[in-house]
User: Fold 3-isopropylmalate dehydratase small subunit from Candidatus Hoaglandella endobia.
Amino acid sequence: MAKKFNQHTGIVVPLDNANVDTDAIIPKQFLQKMTRSGFGQHLFNDWRFLDAAGQQPNPDFVLNQPCYRGASILLTRENFGCGSSREHAPWALTDYGFHAVIAPSFADIFYSNSLNNQLLPITLQEEEVDELFALVKDHAGMTFTINLEKQQVLAGNKVYSFEIDSFSRHCMINGLDSIGLTMMHEDAISQYEKCQSAFLN
Assistant:
């Protein structure tokens, strides 16, 4: 059972880069782990750190700035998550502490992988994202509230609506991943397997 996502309020960090690919999100040398945990420490490794070992933080990178400590909503630019397909990218983001990413567009596979891993990808119009960048840069460390049930982002005194397919919305609100969905239909699956076994015998 995954963690439920209905409403979330968190600090927003602005990553003002377009075409952020999965290798930037989690470099390939950190993909050896077999579990979903532990990837957050390597998130944006080549940008967050001045050395390959990840020991010297880059003071100029936005995630290392004190006002964004504990940020859980990532605001970024178009085509986020492009490049090679790797489920480790949303794993790294959620392990770091992010609950949602707001952008004008996402790479299709990254978008699907995010929904499957309880990371909410929110697509807004480019003009709306521009407004949010201006707002966050003027009020560093501010929070947004995301209401998934209403499909809204509350930022300052404005409300932004976003689209999400009803099935993904239902799964995220109820904390259902692929395992949870399978368990919901466990009785039906068992009955089907019994019928198949009887038929084959």
About this structure: The mean pLDDT is 89. The helical segments are 22-25, 45-48, 88-96, 108-116, 126-138, 166-174, 178-184, 186-200. The two ends are 35 Å apart (CA to CA). Residues 7-200 form a domain with the Aconitase; domain 4 fold (CATH 3.20.19.10).
